[in-house]
Amino acid sequence: MKFRCVVAFVLSLAFSVAVLAAEKRVLTPQDLWAIKRVSAPALSPDGKTAVIVLQEWSIEKNKSTSNLWLVDVASGAVKRLTTAQASDSAPTWSPDGTRLAFTSKRGDDENASLYVMRLDGGEPEKLIEFPFGLSGLKWMPDGQSIVVVTTVIPELSASLKKEDFAALKKETKHRKESKMTAKVTENRQYRYFDHYITDSAAHRLVLVNTATKEFKDLTPKWDRLFTVAGEANYDLSPDGKTIALSINTVKPPYQSHPNHDIYLLPTDGSGTLQNITPENKGDDTSATFSPDGKTIIFGRQDVPFYSGEFAKLWKHDLATGQNTALTESLDYAFDSVKFSADGKTLWAAVENQGVVPVFKLNADGSGLTAVYKEGSSSGLDVKSGTLVFLNDNTSRPNELFALDISTGHARQLTHFNDEFMAQFNLGKVEGYWFTGANNEQIHGWLVYPPNYDTAKKYPLVQLMHGGPHTMNRDSWSYRWNTQLFAAPGYIVTWVDRHGSTGYSEKFASSIVNQWGDMPFEDIMKSTDFLIKKLPAIDPTKLAAAGASYGGYMAAWVLGHTDRFKTIINHAGVNSSYAQYATDVPHGFPEVMGGKPWENLEGMQKQNPMFYAKNFKTPMLILHGELDYRVPYGNGLELYGVLQAMNVPSRLVVFPNENHWVLSPQNAIYWHWEMQSWLSRYLGGKPVLEKPNFDAPAEAAK
């Protein structure tokens, strides 16, 4: 009887599992916007609690809200801290761990403002709002004030005071409402990513007293932005007396390559700046003070333009003023590091052959060791012997993890999306290696369609990553999501072709002035390798798709082979001439083969449009009008040529999107266009109907 009961139970369990499997569904673009997105953590001073920002999106409202959550590191228990329909961000702990400072735009706030809340209860208190908003919060060691970053109009605020606010607000309002909208410049760099920088603007570091709400300008009379990207990259010394700040030393009209150096700035309000890296003509960034305040670790690149060079760690000795290389012999690119409490160990998340492990190394640059190697890790924070970080992979979005420093064992702390993700039938993911250009070993990621059956035939979609100096990670994406591309019934692959990071600096820099040839050879050899490896691939149904530099490769493929049934090109660098209108004008002439006024032959050889006579393959072209990184004339030019040649082509332009398609409704429509286009030429069924986001009649009144 007992045996029969056990058998019955096992059969029942098997049936339940089968039913659950049958109920699973494929991923849709709408699902990407239902996922809760976890930000990089900030640890409390005692290392026992992490605070994260959890972002949730509304497709209907086409906007997001973000709130603060606390996570107990020992148990993983989570507690929601703020509940406002707002965008809370950048939380940072007071030195005694009793308060959190963060930015938010709530109620009548016109800009992101500074808020502080106690952890033992009570509502957040608004401390101050600046006319241009604020960011970059760091507490002073005494817990009585906070350093923040804001922006001003320099001619109206030589030394920022409250009396300047009225004039700043008036001028800001005038700029927004002016009927004259011309942008005028004589600078070489005059816009960045999706906005113009022709209007005068300057960064300021400001010290805000949390009790009196009074503030002091730490950079009086500073008259321009600190960095090309319009961001403030700085660290505060343990004693609170000094700031290490990255500043672009090149002044308007920005004719030469940007050169970011590390400057020391006292917090006494004098505004005295001391450049501690003047000898380097490349970028010095990401300064981090050691716990004893005696040294600064920073990242350095020697080449002043985007060439595939890896950033290496350097050390500045504050007593001697000497700069010393730490990781020159290590073939890894370091973005930033975190110190252990005793200052003897550095922790970092570093790209390595398709994944991003958590590494540790000694403070002198020796002893590099990969501690946690699964998926892609980011957002490390270390306090009092505790290390937390974000981790995701191709089949799971970011969640918060904790690492046992002594054993290397990692625990997943948060499970915000476990239940939601459990409903999807995702494809199997695996890495592979093949012989590519120069007979070098090339790595790729392969994602199978849901319910993959070796007895069936499937199209192959070759995704081509951007950069060009980036790496395909085992990572979740909210845009070019490989699981979503596979969902209609396609085998999908990414290839870390020549020029990719994460393998070696030589490999990453190998395509300078030859963007097309070796990456194309890698992509085609990957295609041949996979067709041979997987008989289930239908060699008559191949597609290629890419964005940015991946779009360059899409246009390059268009002019060099007709093996693909169709190609998708989003925000592609299709024309070497059009790219002179980019927002980062320095460097493109040095890496794209040549210049129009010298070595025109070399430039044309690497120009995808130069091979227009070979264009035959149907192409979908998508672009945002606010894309200043790859100006959308690139897309219009290629589309115009294809139409004139009677090559089947389709153009999708988003007037209010930049290099990326960031709003939910546009992004869902973007996916529908791509899936419908692939379906037209490869078969397979899109996982969504054509989206209809028309406003309800009530809302339109």
Q: What does this entry look like structurally?
A:
- Helices cover 18% and strands 31% of the residues.
- It has an 8-stranded mixed sheet, with helices on both faces. Strands 1, 2, 3, 4 and 5 form a 5-stranded antiparallel sheet that branches.
- Mean pLDDT is 93; it is low at 1-19 and 697-701.
- Strand 26 (358-362) and strand 27 (369-372) form a beta hairpin.
- It has 701 residues and is α+β, with helices and mostly antiparallel strands.
Descriptive keywords:
alpha+beta, 13 helices, 5-stranded antiparallel β-sheet, disordered C terminus, about 20% helix, 8-stranded mixed β-sheet, about 30% strand, about 700 residues
Number of helices: 13
Strand adjacency order, main sheet: 32-33-35-34-36-37-38-39
Q: Pick out the low-confidence regions.
A: 1-19, 697-701
Strand pairing plus helix content: what structural class? alpha+beta
What is the overall shape?
globular
Q: Please give the alpha-carbon distance between the first and last residues.
A: 70 Å
* Mean pLDDT across every amino acid position: 93
| Radius of gyration, taken over Cα atoms and rounded to an integer in Å | 26 Å
Helical content band: 10-25%
Give the number of DSSP strands: 39
Approximate strand percentage:
25-35%
Largest sheet: 8 strands, mixed
